[in-house]
Amino acid sequence: MNSNRVVITGMGVITPLGLTVDSMWSAMRAGKSAISAIDTFDVSAYKTRIAGVIRDFDADEAIGRKEARRMDRFVQFAVAAAKQALDDAALSLESANKDRIGVYIGSGIGGIRTMLDNYRTLLERGPGRVSPSVVPMMIANMAAAQVSILYGLKGPVLAPVTACATGNNAIGEAFHLIRRGGADAVIAGGSEATIIDLALAGFGNATAMSTRNEEPERASRPFDTERDGFVASEGAGVLVLESLDHAIRRGARIHAEVVGYGSSSDAYHVVATDPDGDGAFRAMRETLADAGLRLEEVDVISAHATSTPLGDLSETRAIKRLFGAGAGRIPVTANKSMLGHMLGAAGGVEAVALVKMIQDGIIPPTLNLDRPDPECDLDYVPNRARACEVRVGLSNSFGFGGHNAVIAIRKYER
């Protein structure tokens, strides 16, 4: 079996903190919050009225009017982020073997906006007025499919749907595909667009979301004793992964190297995480084994850290169980304190942020950590970014249904 090294050569994001990698990273380093009052529809009757909303994304400009009209918003985000990543990678598709380039982009929920808009049309105007494109616009594989179609990429195409673990599962499975020789390159990540009425009502009634509506920027507060739930967000994060040999042959600039991937199931509950963090522990342990890394080699953990009371505590317990007495030395940062929870897109965006940590030697802060939970007693880089050499980092993503996915990224060295 082949065992190729796998490197990251391109990155792209669409987020409420910025529509490019540079703008997002600059805001994260500065500790800025993307959370604000929702003004895209009437939320006066909802328990939660805040989110990470993308307001300045122009799909016609990013993609083209004709193509954009055939896509749900989550697909638009994915296509725009993939274009950024391909441009960043300077991957010439005209001369590439497109049979050897795959697309692994998933979504936790898919085109729920398109589905609901057309259902309302059905009820109000009858079946004859429903769009004939409703199904291909709404199904969750369409982000991967549209990127494949637009660029003529004929390698393996996969669209993981593992709730909030989706982005990491996509990157991890793409990493394993390339490592075993199944592709030369894969465009991988996740996308989500669920800031709509039904999702807001459902999550809110499940008491999963923060109701700190009067202080949006202070609502997402991982590991803080006053945390009261996650804050929903939207966007996409996409990476170009390549075998090292392929990247070197074409003279690519290499951002970092993916070295490990682990996944597991809690097999516990459809929504709640295992209180002891057993699934998270096993996914992190598997990732380190897959990478051949020792515990002491990990320099930072990008935590899942959604700001839910049980979730943050269980992740802390998992980290302490794995790293033992050494857990306290590892900086643990919570990107969702700034970005909000991008659901299926979270893993892709947070992988990009981890690469930037490695490149710049800066760990972004965990915002709003004003009164640390006594049971969450690790080094969470509270409120201010920290200069710190980072050679190896773990990125955690955990989702409803008990899905756990962890990736390890290392500084590239020839």
UniProtKB/TrEMBL annotation:
Top EC class, one word: transferase
A molecular function (GO) held by this record is: 3-oxoacyl-[acyl-carrier-protein] synthase activity
Q: Which domain of life is it from?
A: Bacteria
Instruction: Identify the InterPro entries for this entry.
Output: 3-oxoacyl-ACP_synth-2 (IPR017568), Beta-ketoacyl_synthase (IPR000794), Ketoacyl_synth_AS (IPR018201), Ketoacyl_synth_C (IPR014031), Ketoacyl_synth_N (IPR014030), PKS_Beta-ketoAc_synthase_dom (IPR020841), Thiolase-like (IPR016039)
Give its E.C. classification number: 2.3.1.179
Entry keywords, A to Z: Acyltransferase, Fatty acid biosynthesis, Fatty acid metabolism, Lipid biosynthesis, Lipid metabolism, Transferase
This protein's record includes keyword Transport: no
Q: Does the keyword field hold Lipid biosynthesis?
A: yes
Q: Where is the Ketosynthase family 3 (KS3) domain?
A: 3-411
Membership in a protein family: Belongs to the thiolase-like superfamily. Beta-ketoacyl-ACP synthases family.
Which protein, by its recorded name, is this? Answer: 3-oxoacyl-[acyl-carrier-protein] synthase 2
Q: Could you tell me which species this protein originates from?
A: Paenibacillus oceani
